[in-house]
Prior knowledge:
By secondary structure, chain A is an alpha+beta fold. Chain A is 31% helix and 22% strand. Chain A has helices at residues 3-27, 31-34, 58-61, 64-74, 161-168, 174-202, 204-227, 282-296, 305-308, 330-348, 414-420, 496-500, 537-546, 551-558, and strands spanning 39-45, 50-53, 85-88, 100-109, 112-122, 151-155, 158-159, 232-240, 250-259, 262-266, 311-314, 367-373, 378-384, 423-430, 446-452, 456-461, 482-486, 507-513, 518-522. In chain B, β34 (660-663) and β35 form a beta hairpin.
Amino acid sequence: MDMIHMNIVESAMIAIAREMGINVQKTAYSTIFSEAEDFTCALANRNGELIAVADFCPAQIGGVPLLVRSMVKEIPLSDMNEGDVIVHNDPYRGGLHTPEHTVFKPIFVEKEIVAFSVCIGHFVEVGGMVPGGFPGEATEVFHEGLRVPPVKIMKEGEDVPEVWKMMLANVRTPRGNYGDMRALISAVDLGEERLKNLIQKYGAEAFEKTVQDLMDYSEKRMRAELETFKDGKYTFIDTIEDDGIEDKEYEIHVAVYVQGGEVVVDYTGSSKQAKGPINATLGVAWSAAFNAILHMTDETIPLNSGCLRPIRVIAPAGTVMNVDYPGSSVGGNTESHPLIVCAIFGAMVDCVPDRVMASEGTTHGCFVFGGHDPLNDEPYGGFDFSYVGYGGRLFADGNDATDSINGNCANTPMEVFETRFPWIVEEYALRPNSGGPGKFRGGLSNVKQMLCTGEMLVSQMTNKHKLSAWGLEDGQEGALGATLYKKSGTEKWETTVEGYGKVSSSKYSNIPMTPGDRVRVLAPGGGGYGSPLERSRASVEEDVREGYVTEDRAKEFYGL
Amino acid sequence: MARILGIDVGGTFTDFVSYDSKTQTLEVWKTSSTPGDPSDGILNGMAQKISDKVEYMRFGTTVATNAILERKGAKVAFVTTQGFKDVPFIQRGKRKSHYDITWIKSKPLVKRRDCYEIDERVTPREGIYKPLNESQAREVAKKINSDPEIESIAVCLLCSYIFPEHERQLKAIFETECPSKPVSISYDLLPKWKEHERSSTTIADAYIKPIVSRNLQLLQDRVEARGDIGKIAVIKSNGGEITLQAARQFPIHLSLSGPTGGVIGAKYIANLSGISNLVTLDMGGTSTDVSTVVNARESFTTSYEIEFGIPIQIPMLDIRTMGAGGGSIAWIDKGGMLRVGPQSAGAQPGPACYGRGGEEPTVTDANVVLGRINPSNFLGGEMGLDVQAANKAVQKVADEIKVTIDEAAMGIVQIANNNMVGALRMVLTERGLDPRDFTLLAFGGAGPVHITDVMHSANISSGIVPNYPGQFSAFGFIMTDARIDLERTAQMTSKAFDKEHASRVLSDLVKEAEKSLSAQGYSGTLEVYRSLEMRYFGQNHELEVPIAFDVFDNLTISEVWERFHSVHKARYGFDIPGETIELISIKVTAVSVTLKPSLPEIEKAITPAEPINKREVRFDSGYLNTAVYSRAKLRAGDHFNGPAIIEEGASVTVIRPEYNVKIDPYGNILIGEIATN
Lengths: 560, 677
């Protein structure tokens, strides 16, 4: 193993993936790419192993190996030609949920495929029953937008017009989707060109050897790390509060077996799959387990399939942890993923107390809307993130207003948001008292209040309106989230259950809004860590002075 | 013009370069820096050498940078639109990295209890949606005034980049009600959308205003008291100079003043040698700065963060800093991989070879092991190096990964080079530039040591090591021009383009830029550059397209749209013909050109250059018997082939076997293709 050469190849590949991402960000049309960075750029070898990835959106990273393998199953390497680009979004073929589109480009060196350049991006508009891609009341994958099995969108460098036409005919914002797809393709083109240069510099054989070494190295580091974990079985159960269709709870069972440098994450015992779209696909169940373990281990281990080898996942089919066809799954990737990660933290607090946190708010808000914008005379679709409080830790408070753990998406600035969409934002603030009390308190979440100025349909897929973020080691729970509507001309703030007859206040489809209506989206706060009575007086006083905690609450929980 | 003085205040030393136009000579010296009050170091250094009148004194300052990085600025009151005081705290909602459970979100430069909201609202679609509540504003102003700890005020209102009136009204109110507290408004600093970036920039300006103001005033008073200094100017982050009086108005523009000197010097060298594209590598002990000169012009950016999530967006030279230098420590990670940095041995104890007790192997130690650095001629012989200590330190990592000491030392140097090549690629390829079109200019103490390795790995065929590579930043400061960058939002699409409005914004900007320079007393030749920030309608990031006209008419505007398509294609590999294009803002830069020194030429070579000795130096293929030259003895026109070592006081230039060298008329070392012409 040539450690010096390996270091050089690894940093070159990460730089390539990062450059690919910059192309997406700068050229995409949707703010979810250009501002939120809800995409991932990666390189894979011909076996579908992840060999390098840049820091963009973590939910998608663990999905890469399964995605590449599923694609190759349907389009064998022998059917791929230089210049082909393949697109795919099917949750039942290794995908994460319908909005997540993966674009692949095979990289040929001397007529042989050596690697793939891969870009996964979250499209806001995918057709289906609601504008914006998050039908909270979907019960089948068909409700969740156009399913695209692995198909060539470009052949030998030329567009395949039939595929473009078919895809763009099934979405509400074809012009934006066209621009976004071009952005993703430009990224895989760039990745192809750059990686090819790198491979040619060393020769394909030497390159492949180095990449194998690199994965072996990552595996070795991960095993060494896991060997320091105390062997044992660690369990936790968390609950999905409802699915948008029935007012009923679903359990996520987690058993983490740690033994001799390996980990098995077993979801056996989890509830049967839900009718509504909170189910995880197999890709999500894997990705969430990887995400949790990566949080507990050394961040400097090169992220590739090698470091995932010591981690195994058991996800029984037909449960909320591995949905059977044709169940719905759009919220599994956004809402259930962070719940799973936190459940694994909850299990592992006895094993590695300094590498976990109390529950965070486990939602991205996923407030989506769409309509026809009279200003530009064109249809639009938008996705708005909420930021949750993170959980307190053994050594520090939870962070305030941060994207939930399976994403790392930036907000769309209010000034950009109001330019793009017919809304006026009236408040964008932290929620005092939303952090769960603790020796290290949970982080505060945010609240956003908006006035509607156009006709539109609104849907949402969020969490923790009924079951709050739990604390650890006597830490207290964080504040619940809520979404409240106030119709024009009325003075009453109502949930969608009260005002629109929906089953759920957090998962619903197609609320009609008209100018003068208002909505107020409150994200959930994080859980606390340790007893609040042990919090230092100076920290409590500073929290009160800074307005993170009100005086009466400081008296009630912290004995100020 | 008699004498120009350039001063670069660094962490350890303050460098001075003085140019005398009568004798056409340069003088270079340095003194210890005085971080407590940088003006002491400046005055000390001047006292050492300056005996006659200095016409022009320019300096780069680190006062603003340090106040921000060390969080030693003023207590600021932040004033914003009702409902938005938490924008600096929420930031953009992102984590610094994906899997770091220990990460703690950055705090803004203001306390939450010092944030105030004003009842008013402007929106992009509705315009003035709610008028400014002046009486409430006055109440807030009185409250701020009654807090003796608050030293300055930052105002950023939502959508003020479209409609600045409310911010201006507030400024007037605060100036009346809080006469002792300076007010920064966002429109003056960053009239562009995205409220967090604009707020953060405005807060940072207010945060450093009192301390920068005091420092500049103090320096000005002390220098003027000498009675022999003509004009004094300080260098902005955009590499242009500004009078001290004007700089105090918007101190945020000084936030990255220090590192600009090398880039200005690079631009000068580019023009002098007729090279249009340069990439600079300024490698010191703990960090390396990389920047570019493209088509003989510096590259600019507005994207900078003082900490993760705390941006400052002002026009600045695009200088990327990475934490890798001669002092970067090599270590073996848990999986047995050799790594270099980001830890550095710093100045104390420094690399093991400094013999000050450092035991960790650094890049400099590896260069000593490989015979590249001469232990008896480091810093011109001022400091002897401890070869034993270097060997011992490098041997330690060699043993751990079971290779020979030479292989380990080569590995350390290669990884350090690779990190630098990565940084070079980022500054070039991120903007669609091809390294093969560039010449590498290396300076700083360690830059010349690595120049040919980096050229080799990055596919760059020509390189230059300028004179005084150790004081090149101060050299740059004798070459500055006065410069102002202005930008205004003028959002409209190609479908509904208001040519008259665009022409008016453009001409207003040009007038404003000219006025600002002439108010500071700059009357030299004025160069005006205009450009447009544009994108496809629906995209969110703009591409800058330069224009060369004053009036938007049917002809010029259709050229602009075509130009945009081709720039997009060149930059990102595709365009979307027929797509609507959106203009976001109009930018104007005005440069008042100052008189430049004409550099002295050195003696011409008559006989071939003679090495001062030969020694074994390790290159990729093994040890080679290598000629060692003294830079002081080289003459214009001297040329020789690698492998070679060129030693001078502040640095060592290492020439790989595949390159040749030529000395240009001014004494610059030319390497590779450029040396064969």
